[in-house]
Amino acid sequence: ANSEGIFGKKKISVDEAMQVLNLVKGDVSPKAVQKQFDRYFATNAVEKGGSFYLQSKIYRAKEQLDEFIRETEEMKKQEASESSSKDTDGSKDSSSSS
Questions:
Q1: How far apart are CA 56 and CA 11, in angstroms?
Q2: Measuring CA to CA, how many Å separate 96 from each of 57, 79, 93?
Q3: What pLDDT band is residue 9 in, cutting at 50, 70 and 90?
Q4: Which of 17, 55, 66, 83 is most buried, by CB atoms within 10 Å?
Q5: Which residues pair with 8 in a beta bridge?
């Protein structure tokens, strides 16, 4: 799963991504990430004398946190389906076979 963004290949850690977008773990939601991304990306626009390096860092941070959110939601869905299947299947009752 080597995801390459338009600004380069190097991925940053989730912690660094949160620092770049000035978020803490409890604040990481699609809405919050997009809000911070829009704010910092526009502020650092090259046309306004901003830094392409910072813009690319901000872009990579958003990309990483979007992926982190997606993975977190998938894990929650898996855990929910596993726990609900445990509740309905019951390890002792094996009469319902496919």
A1: 11
A2: 53, 22, 8
A3: low
A4: 17
A5: 5
pLDDT score at 87:
61
pLDDT in tens, 43-84: 999 999 999 999 999 999 999 999 999 999 999 999 988 888
85, two tokens: 């299947």
CB of 55 within 8 A of CB of 22? no
* Per-residue tokens: 68: 């982190």
What is d(CA 52, CA 47) in angstroms, rounded to the nearest whole number?
Answer: 10
The pTM assigned to this predicted structure is: 0.73
Q: What is the CA radius of gyration of the chain?
A: 20
